[in-house]
UniProtKB/TrEMBL annotation:
NCBIfam families: PPOX_FMN_DR2398. Residues 36-155 form the Pyridoxamine 5'-phosphate oxidase N-terminal domain. Pfam families: PNPOx_N. This is Flavin-nucleotide-binding protein.
């Protein structure tokens, strides 16, 4: 038996269902195929979202954030997501070109429930769409257009267990390796280090939009 469980691994859905049992009705009925006004309120209150994609190079889960309402509800079947300035890896965008399936997870500070959206995405450079997202004198290079297929809220158990919003549980950033140290150790000193850390706050400030 290996460390992952060996013969004790569950390998089919029948065994999985036998272990977990049936879902309560609310867990099923909350899932719909459009943006209900109540779900729209949650999207417009969220300043943070995770975008999950898949492509030939693998999977990606990308954090996205801006002031609340940064994801626009165009209509009950369509969401618009600005692609703000990043590191130009464009992992999510490359995946969408090859596989348009996406999953979104919206978080609202202080709220236990999260919102999950699944759908199909496309990348647009339409001026009318890009112009909707002017902020601090800048525009996104592209807008991700999501055609909604399923929407539902997630119960707060995970956030309650993790105490994510409890300020007494917040971790001091200095308790973890700095970005400069991480880069320096991973690259054997090619990049990173103390100078990287000293310049990092100003660099983030100057390139955030």
């Amino acid at each position: 038996m290996d460390a992952a469980g060996g013969d004790h691994l569950i390998r089919d859905e029948t065994a999985l269902r036998a272990l977990y049992g049936e879902s309560p009705p609310g867990a099923i009925w909350k899932e719909i195929d459009h943006i209900h006004p109540h779900y729209r309120a949650m999207i417009e209150a969220a300043p943070f979202m995770v975008l999950a994609t898949a492509g030939p190079g693998g999977l990606d889960a990308s954090p996205r954030g801006d002031p609340p309402g940064f994801v626009h509800v165009l209509d009950e079947k369509t969401l618009l997501i600005p692609d703000r300035r990043g590191n130009n890896r464009i992992d999510s965008l490359r995946n969408i070109i090859h596989d348009d399936r996406v999953a979104l997870l919206f978080l609202i500070p202080g709220v236990g429930e999260t919102l999950r959206v699944n759908g199909r995405a496309a990348i647009s450079v339409a001026p009318a769409l890009i112009g909707r997202f002017a902020f601090r004198g800048t525009l996104p290079r592209t807008v991700i257009v999501v055609r909604v297929e399923t929407v539902f809220f997630q119960c707060p158990k995970a956030l309650v267990r993790s105490e994510l919003w409890n300020p007494e549980k917040h971790v001091d950033r200095k308790a973890l390796p700095s970005t400069g140290k991480i880069l320096a150790d991973i690259t054997a000193g090619k990049i990173g280090g103390e100078e990287y850390d000293r310049a990092y706050p100003e660099r983030v400030s100057q390139t955030i939009y």
